[in-house]
C-alpha cells in the first residue's frame, strides 16, 4: 500500500495552490489543522471507517463538527476528500500544506533547546544569526533542558546543530571507545 504522505501530497498541493491564488494561506492552514483534529477524534475516526455512512454523510459530519470555521471552498475540499475516501489523511494533508506554506514564505521553524533560559536579547541575536546563515525568516521556539549541561541544541528542518556540552561529551566518549 502506498505511504500515507504520498497519498496526501496531491491534495495538499491542490489546497495550497488554491489558497495561494486566493491569498488566504493562513486561513487554509488553520482550517486544515482544525479539520485534521476533528478527524483524529476516535469517535469521528470510527464514523469515517463505518461502511454504513455515505461519503456525503461523512463530509457533512466533519463540516458540522468544524462549525462555521470552514469557508465554502474549504467545505468543498472536505467533500472531495470524502468522495475519494481520503478524510483520514487530513493530518498528513495539513502537515504538507504547512511545509509548502513555510517554503512560500521563505520561513523555517527552528527549535532551540538550551541548557539555561535565554533572555530576549540572546534569542534575538540567535534568530538573526540563524536567519543570516539559512537565508530565511526564522520562527523560533525556545525550551530549556538542564540535562544538556551547557550550550544548546538547534533543529531547523533537516539541519541539527548540537552545541551542547552533553553532545560534545558523547562525541568524546565515542572517539575514546573507537
TrEMBL record:
Q: Where in the cell is it found?
A: Cell membrane; Membrane
PROSITE patterns (alphabetical)? ATPASE_DELTA (PS00389)
InterPro entries recorded for this chain?
A: ATP_synth_OSCP/delta_N_sf, ATPase_OSCP/d_CS, ATPase_OSCP/dsu
Pfam families recorded: OSCP (PF00213)
**One annotated GO molecular function:** proton-transporting ATP synthase activity, rotational mechanism
Keyword Ion transport recorded: yes
GO annotation, cellular component aspect: plasma membrane; proton-transporting ATP synthase complex
What is the membrane topology noted in the UniProt record heading this document? Peripheral membrane protein
Q: Which domain of life is it from?
A: Bacteria
Q: Does the keyword Iron apply?
A: no
State the UniProt keywords alphabetically.
ATP synthesis, Cell membrane, CF(1), Hydrogen ion transport, Ion transport, Membrane, Transport
Q: Entry's HAMAP family?
A: ATP_synth_delta_bact
Question: Family per UniProt?
Answer: Belongs to the ATPase delta chain family.
Q: Which NCBIfam families match?
A: ATP_synt_delta (TIGR01145), PRK05758.2-2 (NF004402)
Query: Its function?
Result: F(1)F(0) ATP synthase produces ATP from ADP in the presence of a proton or sodium gradient. F-type ATPases consist of two structural domains, F(1) containing the extramembraneous catalytic core and F(0) containing the membrane proton channel, linked together by a central stalk and a peripheral stalk. During catalysis, ATP synthesis in the catalytic domain of F(1) is coupled via a rotary mechanism of the central stalk subunits to proton translocation. This protein is part of the stalk that links CF(0) to CF(1). It either transmits conformational changes from CF(0) to CF(1) or is implicated in proton conduction.
Q: What is this protein called?
A: ATP synthase subunit delta
Organism annotation: Gammaproteobacteria bacterium LSUCC0057
